[in-house]
Design brief:
Elements lengths: L1 E5 L3 H12 L3 E5 L3 H10 L15 E4 L2 H5 L4 E4 L6 H8 L8 E4 L12 H8 L4 E6 L4 H5 L4 E6 L3 H11 L4 E6 L2 H23 L3 H22 L10 H12 L4 H10 L4 H8 L5 H15 L4 H11 L4 H9 L9
Parallel strand pairs: 1-2, 1-4, 2-3, 4-5, 5-6, 7-8
Antiparallel strand pairs: 6-7
Bound molecules: nicotinamide-adenine-dinucleotide (NAD).
């Protein structure tokens, strides 16, 4: 297959390498011209995984039209709030029927749309697959085993995605529940911020388990309200990625929570991360979406109020702990 990977950050460079290792012809597009030049020259960059270098078979470019023209598969790995603009800029050269695989996890600010909805909006003639599940780029780069999920309403699109990227150590299950997979992948990042905060305050493992469980309930409530199957949230894109992101030290969203507990400001945290932490924007968008759909998302709301409304993390935790307890499945 002829594959374009859009996004030369940690996950984009590693996915480009996975695609190249399957024998495809791979072009990797990087938004920042200087970073693209650095990637092309050194086969690594400040944003890629430490110690990882791109295989020679991956052609790096900052020319979007060149990367996308004539490709069978376009893999999106840019920050979720730039997916629309990136696709819109490439729309003219994306042929009808092209498989668009989205590995970005988040919700569009403003419209509150999932990534699958954004893609369908911009390139309606494409076939859309979401790629999600527990997958730290660093571990995939090291060749360690992982299981992911490809979600599409079109089973043949899922099959093509599996044929494009799947392998013995990169196991891709399939799902037809695009909404469930989208909401799981987006909201687990918000829960990781909450868990990082709780761990940073030293609240212990019981509190961590409670937050993750109630977080999963929250993710399920929103997803089901949007038409998802509840069991999808117990799968790789829900429970699986939630466990990884909340507990794995490689998680940037968890690092955001730990930094909040240390009293750092959002500006300081973003400046020191150097990579996108999708949970920051998703918290605000998911809180707004929950209002729109009249769904109760207390943890998401607490994270959003700390990040975007100036509430202290301590005050948010106190508020969460003083909520009425009730029927668990309510
Ligand atoms: N890192 C992981 O392990 C991992 C795993 C699974 C999914 N993801 C998801 O993949 C996506 C990308 O994550 P990452 O870790 O590669 O991030 P990153 O911060 O390492 O890289 C982000 C990339 O986006 C580019 N970019 C910045 N502004 C842009 C713009 N305006 N338009 C287009 N591109 C722009 C950057 O140049 C960079 O190449 C996120 O949605 C993330 O949640 C990451």
């Amino acid at each position: 297959m002829r594959v374009a990977v859009l996004g030369g950050g940690a996950w984009g460079t590693v996915l480009a390498s996975v695609a190249a290792s399957r024998g495809h012809e791979v072009a990797l597009w990087e938004f920042h011209t200087k970073a693209a030049e650095e990637l092309a020259r050194t086969r690594t960059s400040a944003r890629s995984v430490p110690g990882f270098s791109l295989p020679p078979a991956v052609a790096v470019t900052s020319d979007l039209a060149r990367a996308v023209t004539g490709r069978d598969v376009v893999i999106l790995v840019v920050p979720s709030d730039t997916v629309r603009a990136t696709l819109a800029a490439a729309r003219q050269v994306i042929a009808a029927g092209t498989l668009v695989i989205c590995a970005s996890k988040g919700l569009e600010p403003g419209s509150h749309l999932t990534m699958a909805q954004v893609i369908a909006d911009v390139v309606p003639a494409s076939r859309v697959v979401l790629l999600s599940g527990p997958s730290f780029a660093q571990e995939i780069a090291a060749g360690l085993p992982a299981a992911l999920v490809a979600a599409s309403a079109d089973p043949r699109a899922n099959e093509t995605a599996v044929a494009c990227l799947g392998g013995e150590r990169f196991r891709i299950y399939t799902s037809d529940d695009v909404t469930g997979v989208a909401i799981g992948g987006a909201l687990k990042n918000v829960m990781a911020i909450a868990v990082g905060c709780s761990d940073g305050f030293g609240f212990g493992l019981n509190a961590r388990a409670a937050l993750m469980t109630r977080g999963l309930a929250e993710m399920g409530r929103l997803a089901v309200r949007m038409g998802a199957h509840p069991l999808t949230l117990a799968g790789l894109a829900g429970f699986g990625d939630l466990v990884l992101t909340c507990t794995g030290e490689l998680s940037r969203n968890r690092q955001v929570g730990l930094a909040l507990a240390r009293g750092e400001t959002l500006e300081q945290i973003v400046a020191s991360l150097g990579h996108v932490a999708e949970g920051i924007g998703t918290a605000r968008t998911a809180a707004a979406l929950a209002d729109e759909l009249n769904v109760d998302l207390p943890i998401t709301r607490a994270v959003s109020s700390v990040l975007h409304e100036g509430k202290t993390a301590r005050a948010a935790v106190t508020e969460l702990l003083s909520r009425d307890v009730g029927e668990e499945r309510g």
